[in-house]
Amino acid sequence: MESYIKLSTLNDFIFCPKSIYYHTLYDNYEKNIYQETAQKEGTKYHEAIDNKTYSTRKEILQWIPVFSDQYQISWNIDIFNTKTWELTERKTEIFLDKDWSEKIYKWQKYQLWWQMFCLEEMWYTVSQMYIYSIKTNKKYRIYKPSTKQLIDFEEMLEKYRKFNPINPNWQQNTQKCIKCIYRELCDYYIWEIYPQMKLFE
Ligand code: SF4
């Protein structure tokens, strides 16, 4: 795998390591072909950031590439205000837990910490971090990682680097397979009723 890990690749990895491969395959196609409603909506909401037209204010950095040598990671920051030092990651909406309460997942915190580590290495100070829900116009504060969270973050990077894609003992998560946008192509796609069908043994 490449030495600098991209945040988008890590997101795939956390969802399902096999999806990295299918994501790369689909990169050559129009997103409309494989994205489902939720992803299409997310892409639409992210257009202003991708095109750097979300704000015309000079102090707002949008979609700027950042890197961290320490963690060997890279990506683009979503929105960073160089006057208030606030870093914001925009999301279409916040997920709801089983009891319908709003839930911020660990991997969503990783996204902000990821950007923060890169910015701090580039001599920016990050004072506060937020996830912003576009649909509800609400902000959720994300705090800097504790020592334990930092260790978890580093372990997750290590797990990514050591992942063996041909490990015969690897097992898919059927609940994720059902929701996976790559399921049409994936030879590991399985859902609860049917036995696994592998095209390539
Ligand atoms: S279909 Fe299942 S195994 Fe295949 S990439 Fe998606 S989640 Fe992973």
Question: What does the secondary structure layout of this molecule look like, with pairings?
Answer:
Blueprint: E1 5-6, H1 7-15, H2 19-26, H3 31-34, H4 37-50, E2 60-62, E3 65-68, E4 73-76, E5 79-81, E6 86-91, E7 95-96, E8 102-103, H5 106-121, E9 128-133, E10 138-142, H6 147-162, H7 174-179
General description of the model:
With 201 residues, this protein is of the alpha+beta class. It has a single domain, classed as Lambda Exonuclease, Chain A, CATH 3.90.320. Helix content is 36%, strand content 18%. It has helices at 7-15, 19-26, 31-34, 37-50, 106-121, 147-162, 174-179; strands at 5-6, 60-62, 65-68, 73-76, 79-81, 86-91, 95-96, 102-103, 128-133, 138-142. It has a 5-stranded mixed beta sheet with strand order 2-5-6-9-10. It has a 3-stranded mixed beta sheet with strand order 1-4-3. Strand 9 (128-133) and strand 10 (138-142) form a beta hairpin. It is globular.
| Relative strand content | 15-25%
Order of neighbouring strands in the sheet with most strands: 2-5-6-9-10
Order of helices and strands: EHHHHEEEEEEEHEEHH
Bound compounds: iron/sulfur cluster
Enter the CATH topology name: Lambda Exonuclease, Chain A
User: Under the CATH scheme, which class?
Assistant: Alpha Beta
Largest sheet, strands/sense/barrel: 5 strands, mixed
Question: Which regions contain 5 or more consecutive residues with pLDDT less than 50?
Answer: none
What general outline do the C-alpha atoms trace? globular
Average pLDDT: 85
Distance between the termini: 23 Å
